[in-house]
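[SOLVED] Predicted holo structure with pyridoxal-5'-phosphate

Edit: marking solved, answer below. Original request kept for reference. I posted the sequence and ligand SMILES and asked for the 3D complex as structure tokens.
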Amino acid sequence: MISHLVRNRIAELAQADDLPAYVFDLVQLDTQLAEIRAALPAAVQLYYAAKANAAPPILATLARHVDGIEVASGGELAHVRATCPELPIAFGGPGKTEGELEAALAAGIGVLHVESVQELRLLAAVAERMDAEIDVLLRVNLSIPVGEASGAGPALVMGGVPSPFGLDPDQVELCLPILGSAPRLRLRGVHAHLASGLAADQHLALSAGVLSWATRWARRNRVELTEVTLGGGMSVDYADPENRFDWRHFGAGLADLVEQYPGVPLRIEPGRALTAYAGWYAAEVLDVRPSHGSWFAVLAGGTHHLRTPAARGHDQPFSVVRTERWPHPWPRPELLDRPVTLVGALCTPRDVLARDQPVERLRSGDVVAFAMAGAYGWNISHHEFLMHPPPSFHYLDG
Ligand SMILES: *Cc1c(COP(=O)(O)O)cnc(C)c1O
């Protein structure tokens, strides 16, 4: 549901000819994060995966609630350091360059997720050369069944299947001798991020599996676990914005795991589920027209600004913000009570934001406000395609 705050701002932007636009509701984000933090056991660290959306006002709002930020590149590392210098950083990602490892060591970040044997060797060499110390987590690619999805659609499983992310269990064994002769690297424990789109029960099942594996591995190898990271991937249901990830249930389940594995500090690092709901992308309807029995609304915007529905193949949820602006003497194109496909202005049939969606009324000059555009939206989109101007950005803080 679109709030009055967001709807009014979008109507003002339409009036001021300042569309297309991204509008972020920082009040909603602040409230939601406070609820999520309150639902989690105090012993569980909450990090935010910056790649979901690292806009400075978003990070500044999140900084009030999270324990740190997970970054996945040297660019994100520099950006997050400059934007929230006080927050601890965890650095992950499957392809870190030597320069990025140097930057992580120079910045004195909290912890680095090692994704391969080669990366561990390189990190050890760079740390030795720079005479700098760093904590590491070994990222493992474990095979753990996640069970059936409940409503939020199928989970995207990355663990237990061939992937460039993390170490197979037998590769983890190869890391220990390397760590043994690398005094500047401190092994903290294990990192896992094995799936996305997980409902709370699925995530808990996966987390229990990770902890069971990690504690057995640590005991076998006489490693003291001072951290196990359980990843992100909490589900976001674009088909049903009201079907939210159940943070209370998840928090209660994590509390059980904390009890079951005393003395093993836990961390989670969600991205999408934290910021998706706070963002809106609004674009004006240029034209409403029939085509071979279907109706299309063509927007002054598109997937070059909000690639999420094209990337995931879903229908982006939306609200229509009606306007009375129609400066022309001819009739205003309109449709009543029928399904419409909302497309952008790009010359490709893939520029679809939502397909065959029922609307009561839609006219040229109205505005479509796409919900759930706060994560993996603008920052994953192909902005340069067709050289349309960028949207404007607005951050509402009450
Ligand atoms: C992308 C990513 C996350 C966040 O995933 P979401 O699905 O946005 O919650 C967390 N950890 C790692 C290692 C990632 O690559």
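OP edit: The chain has two domains: 4-22+277-396, 88-270. Thanks to everyone who chimed in.
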